[in-house]
Amino acid sequence: MSIDKLLAISFQSVLNNKLRTSLTILGVVVGIFSIIVIMTIITMLQNSIEDGLAMLNKNTFQVQKHELIVGSDHDRHDRNRKNITIEEAIRLKEVLTQAKYVGAEQWQGGKIIKFGNLNTNPNIHVGGQTTDALKTNDFNVEFGRTLRESDIQNSTNVVILGTDVVEKIFPHLNPVGKMVRVDNHPFRVIGVMEKQREMFGESNNNYALIPITTWQSIYGKYNSSVNIMVTAPSSEEYDDVIEAAIGHFRKIRKVKAGEPNDFSIFSNETMISTVNDITGPIKIGAMVISIIALIAAGIGIMNIMLVSVTERTREIGIRKAIGARRTSILMQFLSEAIILCLVGGVIGIVVGVSIGNLAGSLLSAQSAIPVDWVVIGISMCIIIGLIFGTYPAYKAANLDPIEALRYE
Q: By C-alpha distance, which of 147, 125, 145, 144 is closest to 134?
């Protein structure tokens, strides 16, 4: 019998028993749904986190005081680290000749910016920047100008505003050239930054950038640690520049041989890797739950297929009497089991992706389809159909035609 006829018969058999089919595929739907809905949410969150964390330019890493995520074994060591100073940042720039850019920055949050009788909410981040810091960060001036070396050397009171600030206090005006008050200090606006992407519905545009020397004159030179950003000339030299930066900075910080670094190195890749480390166990847990649910569904499919074989014993006998081969009978029942699993899998995938995206949207995460897990889900359905459909199909294929014709 040709494959198309075999599949047609299998589909017809499945459609002829709608109640049985519905009950059979329900377990598969639950199994596939459980993994797809979780993976959809995780994929949405990962995409949003990765976009939000992509704060550094390509081939760029950061040297900072604290670890990105500090474990319990490192809490005390991390807490006792001394601040990174601007002098150390300048020294690293001098000795790290392999780097393309070496920038430094410091931040203060919860500030207010005023223009006339308008002011922002007290949620503005004020960043002190070197000229190289603007190049290493994913900061681009949309209009106006960027910071110059003369601004850094002379500690000028100039500021570049994020778009949230502009929309709040300059709704109908070009802010360039206007005077504003940043945390009650007068500044002349020299530029406006390009709009940054949101993360989980939270804006990344509520900030203002000023020369790092001006920042230190306002908030103190040694009251907080300096973050150092380093850009390698190319991806091929990236790892070498990291190793060189670690070696040079250990000498600058006078870290003794054999002692751990008293600073942290991270990049977009390490931040994303940390996120993956957190979501990894969740994925494994979802996979285990899904496999258990699918095994339970497979047992149900096998039982219902055995009932189907019993009910269709006479039909099988007639088919064998008119020349149907064992392989045709076996493939028919095996096809029915796989079709049942695939129908349940497709329903589970559609429902899982839909509900997953709905749940993710409540967290303001970007919509996504976990394509790799959809493929895994379909593959699992086929495997479950093969495993649990083999015995009923084998039993049907080996029925004695004479005994089958006598069955009532």
A: 147
